[in-house]
Amino acid sequence: MERQTHPQNSTTGRISVPVLLRSAMTAMHVVAPPLAATVARSLYFRPRRLGLRTAEREVLLQATRFTLEDEGAEVVAHSWGQGPAVALVHGWSGNLGQLTPMVEPLLKAGFRVVGFDWPGHGESEGTASSLLHASRVLQALEQVVGPLHGVVAHSFGAAATIHACSLGLAARRLVFYAPVARLDGYVSAYTEAFRFSERQRSDFLEACARWLHAPFTEFEPLHVATRVDRAALVFHSTDDREVAFDDARRLSTVLGAELRTLEGLGHRRLLRDERSLAETVAFLSR
Known about the structure:
This protein is 41% helix and 18% strand. By secondary structure, it is an alpha/beta fold. The strands form two sheets. It has an eight-stranded mixed beta sheet, sandwiched between helices. Strands 1-2 form a two-stranded antiparallel ribbon. A hairpin with a 5-residue loop joins β1 and β2. It starts with 7 loop residues before the first strand and ends with a helix.
């Protein structure tokens, strides 16, 4: 079995850190604190690449493939059909393939469907990523395809979409599946997994802020959403272990969104729920 050499992040930020890595990080903090903070930041923003299912790959092969660019890295995007454009935005350590069940229903409703793999995800280049990266690419995508009619986003993709909307993304209708509403819990889970001291945590946060050119507080979805006035629909399953249902409820309130409570679909199965897909299409078609 291959030895784990980096923290394993889930969408929630629940992290399992190998003992050797945690020990090495502790030692590095003693002899070279700035380097330790930079390494901790690098690991935090390093996603895992998820493979495609056969059905997902087949849908992607039916699309027109094109590329965008983000800070010199090639970002792979796909487009299906013609009509008002609806963008699909996946979440952290995911890929566009996860949202391909939505392609056919949207095409049948007369929409053009577009989407991309975040930098560092799927087929796109890079090893580091963040919701800021996804937000930038979403805005660049709109520059290529024209004003978006809507966005369908999953998990951290919803946070990236909210950020893009706050900066002028034209999408008039937003549909979020299991949206991430808070970032502070993810940061805390990471620093606690490494058993950082207050000084180490502070150094880590400063390193992240330098890399993002802003502190995490500037990207908090619940805060940023107060600047977003769009028609929105939110789906969330009560048994989701990745994102707390109460977070989705709070975000829905801030956005003035309709909230659909689901059961037994977890964090990802709801992306293939036919009733939710049908309601998504109907909401975008109003």
